[in-house]
Backbone:
């Protein structure tokens, strides 16, 4: 059968949960599709405290934010439906979304859609990068923090962005040693305070370094790293071997935008946002009318910004259906102010320049 | 520099220290946050309004040491674990540092631990004098006593019998450089770029040299990106290789089309369907 | 990179037909041929098609065209000097008849085909099952089979033609769009492209779905239209389906390519008549239904991807070959209605012969563009 509904939110992470909550509160009937068996997306493995301000739940751990947002959605009762283990597998030209819900084929035809599918991890090519023991940082975080499995004994982390730094720290919390963090850029990409946490716990951060190769018989036994010059070429004579049984790749995320491509949204490749992102207006509506976006799928940012975008997209999608409460203008203004604040610092410069290219409608 | 090493400079630290009189008077918060990032819980959580309100959420926290009582609320709240409580007022040649410590097991009061500096090196011993659990933030605050000469250096500690953490810190910093001949550069080509179809970097490079300079052309000739993941992993790598070899900006290299279904689904799946 | 100032012949369209024509002409010693492609080679219908080739047709002309092409492809790698592989697998076509009426027509078809030297056979469902053990014999009443039919890799085939043509001096310009054609005194003078103007008196319109737009640039209406067709493909499987299985009433063609994937497609008259290459969910539902009826064992195979291309259709679903009345120098090779890929070797041969004024290897004079005005349509019923 074909399900008719006001709004479908695809993705139950920070952006999707906020969008669903906001739109339901505004009066829309909402269906939230979550690929996993639980809500929260990346939040559930974020055992660290969040940055930002109180409005984005700063100082609360990601996993607890996930519970709070999920409980709020629950409190709306029948007006908000959640399908867990539900993957949107197709987004068609006539607005129909096909879903794998626990192995059952379902079709949904919503009046509005918020795509909040998040991001996937970028990979790196080096010899033997297919050896067992080489993981994305996100996979390692899931293994540890969701399933309670240690990925190995001694990890080499590639990438000193926030994810590389945070996952290194969490590996140590799980009792896994981190041999080093290798970063190709001359400076650490993540927040200095995250770097400080891993440094004092004894982990060297080697900037202007890259991994040359991995080696091992049946799985990773060691990695060779080297210093690189400005053109990313290894400097001969600076090679070092690092004994490790896990190599963790954390070289950035890229928006998971397949559904937007399928739906026919106009996309633009914006390197500072992590890849191809949908063009959108200041209501977060894409070039396909009725299709809104929020969170990392709009460009890679912190979860705090994802939550505010989710709020804004949910608010606008509901408003466009006539669910426009008294507080609409106030909420919209507040979202815009929060986003402007989160993006105003020097660490967000890349994001600001990227967004200027994506928000052009 | 902080941005290269993750460790603040001595100068950065010294500029944050309160006056000698204030330091002698009692515990105070040492906010080791030197970068403008969007974060303000320290200022909104301080019960004594000692951390000044931020006009812009990206401001670096400023502390009014006359108001600060060294209570530690901010240290437990700080998402960056960048606030420490220093007490130099003991006067017996020791001083204490309170450290936000998110590792298990927690030390016990009275236990001797190894005092560790900002770079992860053990620089002496310390005695645990207090372990405070925070119900709200779940970040325990552990106070250790060190000789007063070390109090501005010590920012972490290792348990003496904790294998995991000591493992991490006992890394030999200087490892013997090994000689790697140019073999590793040449077998670069054997890297498998498209794992679904087993296509190597060599194949991709050969095709680019042959004049196939779009992701789609390479996909059609080699099958790279035609597999189950639909180029999710190799697509960006191939685009980057085209950009590198042809000098085109990567933003102008069209990715290949994304098609339904997003993940492989059995034929019989589409035959079912619910009739709720 | 700008285009040359002049050319003996300008071929518009970098699909398999355009590339094959370019090679064929160059192979006869024609110099200064330019091929223009607005995107990349095989980006239109060629790269999106099922790439099967069969000689089992109901009309003699189609049998002969396909026969010519099969003979060519049998030695394709050698003739074209292709170092990769065009992957011509002569694993046969098994065509099923859903009812007695269709079976009767099939008997006639086999008779005709055999008379032309095409080794097709008429089979009972049980005999058909010996060739395709997965097939559900209760779903059809009879079948025909021809071992010499098969399929190719459409990308490699186009690549093979293009490479061979280039070696013979043809200049291929990708990402070069034709934006105008200059006609003086009803004769072609030049072709205007996004990379410059080429003076020429001969243009081959092999632009597939865009052939109508190219014709319009000379003020001529080419009676072709586009219709979307969809295909889907499964994950690679161990070899289980040797021949292409096809059914006209069932509206299906399904084959396993050498790589292991199973490719299947169908037609749908409600498909949009425009250039969109988006996919539809109804197609997946219908396709999976038909496929699991005929080949139930495939139910557990995973669908990897669906895509769409378009047929460049004519009113009688037959190609348009030959000169354009009213515009001297414009030759048509379009309107293939879904069969352009398999006919490419024959197309190349015939169009070259027409341009050079040589006798035709196969008489296709009734497939000219004028037949639509004359209302002398040529119908072929054995199509999906």
Residues:
């Amino acid at each position: 059968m074909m399900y008719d509904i006001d709004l479908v939110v695809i993705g139950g992470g920070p952006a999707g949960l906020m969008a669903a909550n906001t739109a339901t509160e505004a009066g829309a009937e909402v269906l939230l599709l979550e690929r996993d068996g639980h809500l929260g997306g990346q939040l559930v493995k974020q055992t660290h405290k969040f940055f930002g301000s109180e409005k984005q739940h700063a100082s609360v751990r990601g996993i607890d934010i996930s519970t709070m947002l999920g409980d709020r959605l629950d409190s709306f009762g029948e007006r908000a439906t959640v399908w867990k283990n539900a993957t949107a597998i197709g987004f068609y030209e006539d607005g129909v979304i096909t879903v794998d819900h626990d192995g059952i084929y379902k079709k949904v035809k919503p009046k509005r859609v918020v795509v909040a599918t998040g991001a996937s991890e970028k990979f790196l090519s080096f010899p033997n990068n297919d050896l067992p023991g080489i993981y994305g940082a996100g996979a390692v975080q899931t293994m540890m923090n969701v399933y309670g499995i240690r990925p190995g004994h001694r990890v080499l982390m590639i990438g000193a962005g926030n994810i590389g730094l945070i996952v290194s720290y969490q590996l140590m919390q799980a009792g896994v040693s981190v041999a080093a963090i290798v970063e190709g850029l001359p400076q650490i990409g993540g927040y200095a305070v995250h770097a400080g946490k891993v440094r004092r716990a004894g982990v060297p951060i080697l900037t202007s370094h890259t991994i040359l190769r991995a080696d091992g018989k049946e799985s990773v036994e060691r990695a060779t790293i080297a210093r690189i010059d400005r053109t990313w070429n290894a400097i001969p004579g600076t090679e070092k071997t690092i004994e490790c049984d896990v190599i963790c790749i954390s070289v950035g995320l890229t928006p998971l935008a397949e559904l937007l491509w399928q739906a026919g949204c106009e996309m633009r490749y914006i390197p500072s946002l992590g890849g191809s992102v949908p063009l959108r207006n200041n209501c977060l509506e894409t070039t396909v009318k009725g299709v809104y976006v929020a969170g990392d799928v709009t460009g890679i940012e912190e979860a705090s910004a994802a939550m505010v975008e989710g709020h804004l997209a949910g608010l606008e999608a509901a408003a466009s259906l006539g669910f426009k409460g008294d507080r609409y203008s106030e909420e919209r203004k507040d979202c815009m102010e929060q986003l402007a604040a989160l993006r105003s610092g020097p660490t967000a410069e890349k994001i600001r320049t990227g967004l200027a290219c994506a928000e052009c409608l | 520099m902080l941005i290269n090493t993750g460790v603040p400079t001595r100068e950065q630290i010294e500029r944050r220290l309160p006056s000698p009189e204030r330091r002698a008077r009692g515990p105070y918060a040492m906010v080791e946050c030197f970068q403008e990032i969007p974060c303000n819980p320290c200022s909104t959580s301080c019960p004594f309004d000692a951390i000044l309100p931020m006009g812009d959420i990206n401001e670096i926290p400023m502390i009014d040491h006359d108001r600060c009582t060294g209570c530690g609320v901010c240290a437990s709240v700080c998402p960056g674990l960048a606030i420490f409580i220093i007490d130099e007022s003991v006067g017996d040649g020791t001083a204490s540092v309170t450290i936000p410590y998110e590792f298990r097991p927690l030390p016990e009061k009275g236990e001797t631990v190894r005092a560790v500096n900002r770079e992860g090196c053990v620089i002496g011993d310390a005695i645990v004098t207090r372990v405070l659990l925070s119900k709200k933030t779940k970040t325990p605050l552990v106070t250790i006593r060190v000789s007063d000469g070390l109090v501005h250096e010590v920012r972490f500690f290792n348990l003496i019998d904790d294998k995991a953490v000591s493992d991490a810190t006992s890394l030999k910093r200087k490892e013997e450089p090994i000689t790697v001949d140019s073999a590793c550069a040449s077998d670069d080509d054997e890297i498998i770029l498209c794992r679904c179809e087993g296509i190597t970097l060599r194949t991709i490079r050969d095709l680019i040299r042959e004049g196939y300079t779009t992701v789609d052309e390479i996909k059609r000739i080699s099958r790279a990106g035609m597999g189950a993941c639909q180029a999710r992993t190799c697509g960006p790598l191939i685009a980057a290789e085209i950009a590198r070899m042809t000098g085109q900006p990567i933003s102008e290299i069209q990715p290949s089309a994304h098609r339904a279904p997003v993940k492989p689904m059995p034929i019989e799946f589409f035959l079912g369907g619910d009739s709720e | 990179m700008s285009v040359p100032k002049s050319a003996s012949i300008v071929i518009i369209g970098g699909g398999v037909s355009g590339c094959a024509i370019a090679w064929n002409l160059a192979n006869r010693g024609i110099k200064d041929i330019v091929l223009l492609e607005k995107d990349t080679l095989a980006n239109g219908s060629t790269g999106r098609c099922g790439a099967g080739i069969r000689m089992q047709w109901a009309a003699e002309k189609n049998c002969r065209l396909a026969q010519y092409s099969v003979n060519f492809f049998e030695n394709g790698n050698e003739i074209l000097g292709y170092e990769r592989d065009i992957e011509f697998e002569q694993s046969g076509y098994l065509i099923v008849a859903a009812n007695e009426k269709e079976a009767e027509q099939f008997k006639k078809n086999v008779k005709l085909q055999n008379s032309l030297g095409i080794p097709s056979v008429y089979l009972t469902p049980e005999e058909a099952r010996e060739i395709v053990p997965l097939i559900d014999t209760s779903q059809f009443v009879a079948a025909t089979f021809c071992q010499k039919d098969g399929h190719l890799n459409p990308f490699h085939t186009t690549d093979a033609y293009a490479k061979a043509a280039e070696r013979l001096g043809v200049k291929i310009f990708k990402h070069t769009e034709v934006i105008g054609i200059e006609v003086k005194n009803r004769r072609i003078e030049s072709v205007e492209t996004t990379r410059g103007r080429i003076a020429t008196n001969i243009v081959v319109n092999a632009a597939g779905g865009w052939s109508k737009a190219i014709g319009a640039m000379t003020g001529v209406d080419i009676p072709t239209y586009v219709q979307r067709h969809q295909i889907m493909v499964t994950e690679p499987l161990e070899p289980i389906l040797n021949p292409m299985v096809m059914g006209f009433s069932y509206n299906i063609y399904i084959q396993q390519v050498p790589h292991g994937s199973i490719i299947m497609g169908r037609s749908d008259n409600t498909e949009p008549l425009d250039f969109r290459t988006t996919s539809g969910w109804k197609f997946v539902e219908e396709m999976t239904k038909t496929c699991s009826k005929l080949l139930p064992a495939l139910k557990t195979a995973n669908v990897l991807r669906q895509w769409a291309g378009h047929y460049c259709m004519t009113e009688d679903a037959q190609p348009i070959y030959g000169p354009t009345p009213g515009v001297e120098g414009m030759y048509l090779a379009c309107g293939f209605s879904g069969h352009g890929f398999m006919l490419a070797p024959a197309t190349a041969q015939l169009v070259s012969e027409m341009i050079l004024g040589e006798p035709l290897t196969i008489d296709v004079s009734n497939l000219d563009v004028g037949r639509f005005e004359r209302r002398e349509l040529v119908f072929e019923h054995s199509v999906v």
